[in-house]
Amino acid sequence: MTNNPPLKISDTYTTAFTSVTALADERWTLANNDPFTSMAFLTALEECGAVAPDTGWAPKHLLLKDANERSVAFMPLYLKGHSMGEYVFDHAWAAAFDNAGGQYYPKLLSAVPFTPVAGPRIIVQDGYDKDQAEALLIKAAKGIAANSGLSSLHINFVSEEFAKTHEAPDLFIRTDQQFHWYNRGYASFGEFLETLNSRKRKQIRRERKAAMASDITITQIHGRDISEAQWDAFYGFYLDTGMRKWGQPYLNREFFSLIGKSMPDNLMLVMCERAGKPIAAALNFIGPDALYGRWWGASEHHPFLHFEACYYQAIDYAIEHKLARVEAGAQGPHKVARGYEPTTTWSLHHLPDPNFSEAIERYLRRERKQVKLESDYLSDHLPFKTLD
């Protein structure tokens, strides 16, 4: 229950900010348990220059206040000049819109840049009606899109509850699939392995042994203990992976030093060394109930080292620290064989043009059915002996 009266539309207004740092006196708006919508993470993205108008990420953050100037809710929002770094892929929509004579970009996006992790996209101050505050900011974002002649508004990687609460005739649900590992109270990695069928259990043991076969040592380093030299090594690995996967990495070296200083309690680096020399690393973020695998890279190829550093080390950490799950990033059905399970992701999309909107709505209905069919199939072929 709340002591505050319910919000009324006539009693609120919104203000757009062109940087998170402009909200420095509104720190409560980012004071939540999600590491990726924290002041530290969003500020680091802007301060290092990765998020800026000239990179196609122009901040338009919305702050909702009441008539008494009290802050009510915050929504990270960006004017996007492209669709890179989002992980909810709409390139085909952009091509169709442009082919029909429209202009898809810029568009409006509420998301955490370069981060395919579900979490709060509207943060509401305690004591206010959460659903109503969210609805008011969604309405404000739609208004910006309409008044600016933008093609669309997208709210990416929200919770299922948020998506179903705010789904509307002009705000469509889109689903996709990731693969998460769930901690069912395991006391050790070995206990987790015992829940798998014999073939998969033996496979994982072989992979872990093979990953260490070249006298490789692996260390889990918490944020406060990560040195600048280790950040240098990790960034080199990150650059190599980014150049191969995206053509150009999204983040620069400064970003990692910034988060190392501003949010060390949320960081865990898996460092792999051979003969005392770093050869690979994986960076994880720690949330209140989950470990999030974000970036990986290597300077040497060793069989199964990627699986060890990114998947098995993460499971070890989650078990030791009693975290409920591991989220190992976007895509990757190969994770199922390693105990990760298909998990639906959710987003919301608003397209003011009625003709385009109708076509997208039909497409999304078909896509949701396909996502569910694939998820159901994979769920029926999990490597577990039994699941309660």
Q: What are the key terms here?
A:
15 strands; eleven-stranded mixed beta sheet; Aminopeptidase; alpha+beta; four-stranded antiparallel beta sheet
Q: Major sheet: order of its strands?
A: 2-5-6-8-15-9-14-13-12-11-10
CATH class of the largest domain: Alpha Beta
**The CATH homology group name of the largest domain:** Gcn5-related N-acetyltransferase (GNAT)
What CATH architecture of the largest domain would you give?
Answer: 3-Layer(aba) Sandwich
How many domains?
A: 2
Rounded mean pLDDT is 92
Instruction: Examine the coordinates and then state which fold CATH places here, giving the name of the CATH topology of the largest domain.
Output: Aminopeptidase
Q: Which oligomeric form is depicted?
A: single chain
Major beta-sheet overview = 11 strands, mixed
The count of helical stretches stands at: 10
**SS elements, strand count:** 15
Shape designation: globular
What features would you describe in this structure?
- The protein has 388 residues and is of the alpha+beta class.
- The chain has 2 domains: 204 residues, Gcn5-related N-acetyltransferase (GNAT) (Aminopeptidase, 3-Layer(aba) Sandwich); 140 residues, Aminopeptidase (3-Layer(aba) Sandwich), CATH 3.40.630.
- The protein is 34% helix and 25% strand.
- The protein has 10 helices and 15 strands.
- Strands 2-5-6-8-15-9-14-13-12-11-10 form an 11-stranded mixed β-sheet. Strands 1-3-4-7 form a 4-stranded antiparallel β-sheet, with helices on one face.
- Strand 11 and strand 12 form a beta hairpin.
- Helix 6 packs across helix 9.
- It starts with 11 loop residues before the first strand and ends in a 9-residue tail after the last helix.
